[in-house]
Design a protein that fits this description.
The chain is α+β, with helices and mostly antiparallel strands. The protein is built from twelve helices and 27 strands. The strands form five sheets. Strands 21, 22, 23, 24, 25, 26 and 27 form a seven-stranded antiparallel beta sheet that branches. The longest helix is centred in the middle third of the chain and has 12 residues.
Length: 492
């Protein structure tokens, strides 16, 4: 199948009157192409631009290097949709005078949805990084290379918490062009960047801009909100595409845009390459995400806390929970300590703390810089995976009770790390809702079941046995959700 590709290169330079003399001087220093032979002129154009004067010539050599490593992704998914079955006279005012309109239940049909996105080749043997939301729930994934060749792809790792997914295509031994990853911690505001992807399905497109912000933590659909912000035009279909620097290195995976109507407003966000590198490593090492667990939870430092914490600014993550016996507790971290840096990298807030921990390799050492009552202290913590104790014991509840249709599990550090923040560090959580009474009463994934008809819930086996023996039509269920306590009274 042929695919028409269009590459649009946008470059915008500003020059004001006070800078005219400098601009004139720069133009005098720039290569004068008219004075060199035609063959030498072609060689000059193949060099990657490294100065402002050369930028004014073309981005083409850089684009030619980057584009072959960016792919288009087509995902197919089956969505079950319910349709109401009603009387043919449902909306007829004449017949409604004699009898109320009747409904005859519902009918479920499968509907096919297609999504479009982009991806980046990060392994020459066909390893591709993209966004989780591009291929979420996909039954079939198709990858199209820049030269038009198409491949079926399989997921080897899908991580909703970072909004990243790693795919694999069978190249039959052929080595593909790869984008090397830069150290995204070295990216600075003002750096020139290119964004490459397939917006709106029009074909592979290149836009340029600058890095307009770093460490953006107040946006995002993922749990690890720590983004590079850029004004390079990013539109629907760019998700999963590459954000590259002027050396052709990957500094981020384009993930989201700030938009009021679905179009680009000049504010886009990319997942830093350091997080992409960590997820790729996990994909190639068993296909399971392995994140360091410290056993501590942080919250933002507010202006009201500065005096009591003996700090000068609202910078860092205030430790509010230290799990007894956890790595942080053993290292000497206390509740009330403010984490300022991890491995020499600044920690601006709890989201930055989470990001830094998410990129630390298991088996290494985490160096913490901490402020305790104004005194700077340093701690070393081993980067260990979260323990799965107690075992999750995921169980689908059946029968005539308000939890029927819910999959419940024992809370452990590993499960809490997998699911995200929970309202309790122990007990039983709703892992999933598959329908039934649980769906009708509005139970949600992540709800912690605290009490059922006076039973203080502590374990899956305990709750399951209680529900099987209960013989009542009245139920009182207490759940914890997002720090709130919700009491449900159910009859029948």
């Amino acid at each position: 199948m042929k695919k028409i590709s269009a590459i649009f290169i946008c470059a915008l330079f500003f020059c004001t009157a006070p800078c005219a003399a400098r601009a004139s001087q720069a133009s005098q220093q720039a290569p004068v192409l008219q004075s060199v032979p035609l063959q030498q002129k072609a060689q000059v154009r193949q060099q990657v631009p490294v100065s402002i004067a050369e930028m004014q010539l073309t981005f083409a050599p850089l684009v030619k290097r980057v584009v072959p490593a960016v792919v288009n992704i087509y995902a197919k998914r089956v969505v079950k949709q319910q349709y109401r079955i009603v009387s043919p006279f449902f909306n007829n005012p004449f017949f409604s005078q004699f009898a109320p309109p009747q409904q005859f239940g519902s009918l479920t049909r499968d509907r096919i949805e297609h999504s479009l996105g982009s991806g980046v080749i990060v392994g020459a043997d066909g390893i591709i990084a993209t966004n989780h939301h591009v291929i979420a729930n996909a039954t079939k994934i198709r990858v199209v290379l820049s030269d038009g060749r198409e491949f079926d792809a399989k997921k080897i790792l899908d991580d909703p918490r970072t909004d990243l997914a790693i795919l694999k295509i069978d190249t039959h031994g052929e080595k593909l062009p790869v984008l090397k990853m830069a150290d995204s911690d070295n990216v600075e505001v003002g750096d020139l960047v290119l964004a490459v992807g397939d917006p709106f399905g029009v074909g592979q497109t290149v836009t340029n801009g600058i890095v307009s912000g770093l460490a953006r933590t107040d946006v995002g659909i993922s749990d690890y909100r720590y983004f590079i912000q850029t004004d390079a035009a990013i539109n629907p279909g760019n998700s999963g595409g590459a954000l590259v620097d002027m050396r052709g290195r990957l500094i981020g995976i384009n993930s989201e845009i700030y938009s009021k109507d679905g179009g680009s407003l000049g504010i886009g966000f990319a997942i830093p390459a350091n997080m992409v590198r960590a997820i790729v490593a996990d994909a190639l090492n068993g296909g399971k995400v392995a994140r360091a667990w410290t056993g501590m939870v942080g919250q933002p430092v507010t202006q009201d806390m500065l005096q009591s914490l003996n700090l000068k600014n609202t910078y860092g993550a205030l430790t509010t929970v230290v799990v007894k016996g956890g790595p942080a507790d053993k290292a000497g971290i206390r509740r009330g300590d403010v984490v300022l840096a991890i491995n020499g990298k600044e920690v601006q807030d709890p989201e930055a703390l989470k990001f830094r921990l998410g990129t630390v390799p298991i088996g290494s050492t985490i160096h913490l810089k901490v402020s305790r009552e104004g005194k700077i202290m340093h701690f070393d913590i081993p980067a260990e995976p979260a323990p799965a104790v107690p075992p999750a014991d995921k169980t689908l509840i059946k029968g005539h009770n308000p939890l029927a249709g819910a999959v419940i599990a024992n809370i452990s550090p590993a499960l809490a790390q997998e699911m995200g923040p929970l309202s309790s560090g122990a007990g039983v959580v709703v892992y999933n809702v598959r329908g039934g009474t649980a769906a009708i009463i509005g139970l949600q994934k992540g709800d912690v079941i605290a009490n059922v008809n006076g039973l203080q819930v502590t374990a899956v086996a305990q709750l399951k046995a209680f529900l099987e023996k209960a013989n009542t039509a009245q139920w009182q269920v207490q759940i914890l959700r997002d720090g709130r306590t919700i009491n449900l009274n159910i009859s029948g």
